[in-house]
Amino acid sequence: MDFSENDSVDAVLASFADTPDPRLREVMDGLVRHLHGFLRDVRPSLHEWEQAIDFLTAIGQRSDEHRQEFILFSDVMGASMLVETMEATRQAGGASGATGERVDATASTVLGPFHVVTSPERALGDTIDSVGTGEPCLIEGSVRAPDGTTVPGARIDVWQADEQGSYDVESEGRQPIGNGRGLFTADDDGRFWFRSIVPAHYPIPTDGPVGALLRATKRHPYRPAHVHFIVEAPGYVPVTTHVFVEGSPYLDSDAVFAVKQSLVRDFAAVDDADAAARHGLPNPFRRAHFDIVLAPEAS
Amino acid sequence: MDFSENDSVDAVLASFADTPDPRLREVMDGLVRHLHGFLRDVRPSLHEWEQAIDFLTAIGQRSDEHRQEFILFSDVMGASMLVETMEATRQAGGASGATGERVDATASTVLGPFHVVTSPERALGDTIDSVGTGEPCLIEGSVRAPDGTTVPGARIDVWQADEQGSYDVESEGRQPIGNGRGLFTADDDGRFWFRSIVPAHYPIPTDGPVGALLRATKRHPYRPAHVHFIVEAPGYVPVTTHVFVEGSPYLDSDAVFAVKQSLVRDFAAVDDADAAARHGLPNPFRRAHFDIVLAPEAS
User: How far apart (Å, rounded) are the C-alpha atoms in residues B181 and B204?
Assistant: First the structure.
């Protein structure tokens, strides 16, 4: 029987019927149903479908070791944040135990496309900024369990844009690779602190297909200022998150939908010559406090 | 308010609200709804979503001037055939006129990923095969309107795999580029004829991400033997189609869902020394008759 609009889902699902892995079969089943549903709703012409194929191809081809345009596409479509939100819900459920109480772990948010360089290992108190043109700041906090227990020795991977809103990999040599990145180990009391500069809000890369999409749809490309964190410790669920700079533009319209109110912190101006000298910072400086709460792994 | 699973569609649709082009806005609206619907149904873990991003990126990166892996992905998902089927329905509707009668034009089918070389212009009766290792055949027919009127001067673009099931661009030098391809102009009576070899069934390219998907899902990669046609004439709706070789394996399980029963033809063995001599073919030879009916454009 010829392929027809009414039977297209059944015909394609039948072709996947022998998929050995049940999860892969479930994924392909959902993909076929939603892909065909999308096509039946939108009814692209052949020419439009060719344009769509060209767009997706260009996204793959724009990606390389320092650029991941498909993550960017997932980000601006809200897909990354939706997957992130569902993962956090699942992990909170897994960690809540038999009584089902909610675990108040630090909220997660998107990984983003810039975790493409291994962060250099640095000592507590070191600076992650080697350029020196931004406004100096101290970022400090502690890693704890929901019950307040300290989590010693957590690994804290941070990366951020500079005061011009650029990551090392997109600064065209202005920053050395590894600038704005650091991998720290919390001390025996779970505390961490490091120096940096206050990051700026920035546009996601707009010189590729995703930028063209944003222009065509009159969407702005900006993300509010933030520092990325991945925090891991044995026996705890790792968290991928940001700390956002209070007062930054675009906190209410992040191009990738990643802002959570619980992650916004004041990067307060501090005038304290002793503290500045102790941390090797000029006075005055800016200081943000960002405590991390990790959910215990389900036993 | 934080992004949540329940509100994700609304949040992302709001970001596209200022899209100036109404069609683009409609497409993005459908994409957001179905993409988020797919994610909510399938609930990929972050790791699975990273695998999906890597898979799509690899599809783009596997594409080049002679290979279009995203068309291949669209083909094996039945998306190309669904778009093709909807386009044909729309054009038949557009061409049927006020009385709404069905126009019996030649059925269309997928373009496929191998229309990547401009077909060499050839004279009626020429051969499109310059290698000479396959079984010689004559393909002939005429181009007509649904009412039987001849359509003189139609342009007939054909391309096909060889007797080993390879297109010129994937034969690694065994065939010169342009082999198995020809662009013909029908004569004043709408007739066309050319020499070739009987194509073989073949696997779609399996050395890329789409091949990996087929292996993981235990799908075979084969397409039944066929010759591609695009036929165009002023005042008529162009048709992109195939003629399939009757008796070929995989006519009932084409990897890209493109078989229509009305497009299958007998490539009959002919023992006719005069006809063979007239066409410059050895005797015996194979012969297929494939008439093309083009729908008039809507006025």
Answer: 18
- φ, ψ (nearest 5 deg) of residue A58: -65, -35
Q: What is the predicted ipTM?
A: 0.88
pLDDT tens digits along A64-87: 888 899 999 999 999 999 999 998
Could you give phi then psi for residue B245, rounded to 5 degrees? -85, 115
Question: How confident is the model over B137-177, as pLDDT tens digits?
Answer: 999 999 999 999 999 999 999 999 999 999 999 888 899 99
Q: Do residues A231 and A190 make contact, with C-beta atoms less than 8 angstroms apart?
A: no
**Strands (E) located in A180-296:** 181-185, 191-197, 202-203, 222-223, 226-232, 239-245, 264-265, 268-270, 285-289, 292-293
Determine which of A82, A106, A263 to mutate to test the interface with B (most B C-beta atoms within 10 Å).
Answer: A82
User: Contact B218/A19, CB-based, under 8 Å?
Assistant: yes
Which of A4, A23, A36, A42 is the best mutation test for B, with the most CBs of B within 10 A?
A: A42
In eight-state DSSP terms, residue A262 is: G
In terms of Cα–Cα distance, which of B277, B243, B276 is closest to B261? B243
- Asked if B295 and B90 count as a contact pair (C-beta separation under 8 A), the reply is no
> Which of A2, A35, A58 is facing B261, going by the closest CB pair?
A2
Domains observed in chain B = 8-61 (no CATH), 69-293 (2.60.130.10)
Tell which residue, A294, A298, A297, A299, has the closest CA to residue A154: A294
pTM of the model: 0.87
CB atoms within 10 A of CB B32: 22
Which residues are CB-contacts of B250 (< 8 A; sequence separation ≥ 6)?
Answer: B201, B220, B222, B223, B224
What residues of A are in contact with residue B28 (Cβ under 8 Å)? 217
CA distance linking residue B228 with residue A67, whole number of Å: 38
A169 Cα to chain B: minimum distance (Å):
19
Q: What is the dihedral of CA A13, A17, A19, A21, to 10 degrees?
A: 90
3-state percent breakdown (helix, strand, coil) of chain B, nearest 5? 30, 20, 50
Report how far residue A291's alpha carbon sits from residue A297's, in angstroms, rounded to the nearest whole number: 19
Q: How far is CA B86 from the centre of its chain?
A: 14
